Amino acid sequence: xxxxxxxxxxxxxxxxxxxxxxxxxxxxxxxxxxxxxxxxxxxxxxxxxxxxxxxxxxxxxxxxxxxxxxxxxxxxxxxxxxxxxxxxxxxxxxxxxxxxxxxxxxxxxxxxxxxxxxxxxxxxxxxxxxxxxxxxxxxxxxxxxxxxxxxxxxxxxxxxxxxxxxxxxxxxxxxxxxxxxxxxxxxxxxxxxxxxxxxxxxxxxxxxxxxxxxxxxxxxxxxxxxxxxxxxxxx
Length: 235
Fold this sequence. Notes:
Layout: H1 2-9, H2 18-21, H3 23-45, H4 50-66, H5 70-101, H6 104-128, H7 149-165, H8 172-195, H9 201-233
C-alpha cells in the first residue's frame, strides 16, 4: 500500500528546505563536525591517546581479514568501490536528473557539496600528510590518508540522498528505513577501509567530521540563498 502511494504521488527528488527553514541545524552540524575534526587533528599532532587505538586496530584487523573466508575480501573491496566509484556514478546520475528537471537549487547543492568534498580532501590530506597504515591489504594506496576521502564522500552522497528521500516517504517506518540505510552505507564503507588497513580509525572519523561540517554549511547557505531569491520573485 505505502509503495503504491509513493508511485501515485509522483516522487520527485526535491529538497525539503529544512536547512533554509532552520539554519541552526546546519550551524550545529558545522560546529560539531568542525570541532570533532579539530580534536582529532590535535590528537594526531600531539600523539594523543587515540593513536594507541589506531595502532592496535591497524595491527590486528587486517590480519583477521586475511584469515577470513574468501568472500570477505569481495565484501570489503565492495566497500572501497562503494565509497568512490559508486558515489561518483550516483552524483552524475543526480546531476543529469536535476538538469533535466530544472531543479537548480538541488543541482547547486549537489555540485557545490561534491566539489567541496574533493577540494577539502586534497587540501587537508596534503597539509596533514599522514601516511596510511603499513598493514594495507588487497587494495593498496600511497596517498596520505587523514582525513579519509571515502568517509567524506559517503556522508555527502548518501546523506544528501537520505535528505531528499526521507521527507517524501509515506510513513515513519519508511522514513526511518531510508535514514538507517544511508547510515549503514556510511558506516560500512568506513569499517571496510579500517578492516583492510586502508585507513586508521581516526582517519575515518575525521572524514565523517569533515563531511558533516561541510554539508551542514554548504546546504544551509544554498537553501537560504534560494529561499531569499524566491521571496524577491514573489514580491
